[in-house]
What does this fold into?
Amino acid sequence: MADRVILDTSAILALTGNKPGADEVQTYLAEAIAGRMELHGSFASLTEVEYITAREEGAEAARQRLTDLNAMPVQWLHSDAALCHEAARLKAAHKISFADAFVAATATRFDATLVHKNPEFHALAAEVKQHSLPPKSGAPGS
It folds into this structure.
């Protein structure tokens, strides 16, 4: 198991939705609680989880989900100039979304393994250590 892990939005949603890969994310949380690893997350993931949850389950569910996430043993990184620069560099070099650029930049900041279900990140394999969770049902490779 990696010493430092960053959870992408897709990994967080797997956990909160009890979807394939939730058990692996739960193991990372247990390891972080036990002090055997560091868990990190990006402000971009907090934003994505909030708006996805609000759309699908309503504003109150989104507020509760954020409360739950902030209670987890995750160190949330918020943006600064250096992170913006790294995200811009990654976005310019790869076909990834704006939010994914910040998540990947967070992984590089902490030299962390990026845990995700997002095939967009595969383009960054040479630059960012990764662990892919099982894909969604019906997704390629499932």
Observations:
- The helical segments are 9-16, 22-33, 43-57, 59-71, 81-93, 98-110.
